[in-house]
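[audit] Reproducing an earlier prediction to check determinism. Same input, same settings, fresh worker. If the C-alpha cells differ from the archived copy the diff job will pick it up downstream; this log only records the rerun itself.
[audit] input (74 residues):
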Amino acid sequence: MKPKLRNGRSPAKPTEEEIREYAHLLYIKSGWLPGRDLDNWLEAEAYLTARARERARAQRMPRRVLAHAEPVGV
C-alpha cells in the first residue's frame, strides 16, 4: 500500500498545478516553441514524479548516526 499524505494524495504524485507550472517553464526555456504542449506536459510530469519519489525514498531511509566516529584530522 502506498503511503498517503493528509490530503489523501500519494507523495510521489505531483499535483496538476505543479505539472502545469513546470510545463510552462519548459515552454519558456524552449524559446516559446508552439505545438509542444503535450511534450512539455509529459516531460514535466515525469520529472516531478521522479523527484517526488526520490524525496519520499530519502525520507524513508534510516538516518545513520555516527556517534562513535572520530573527528576528521585527529
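[audit] rerun output stored. Observation attached for the diff report: Residues 37-60 form the longest helix (24 residues).
[audit] end
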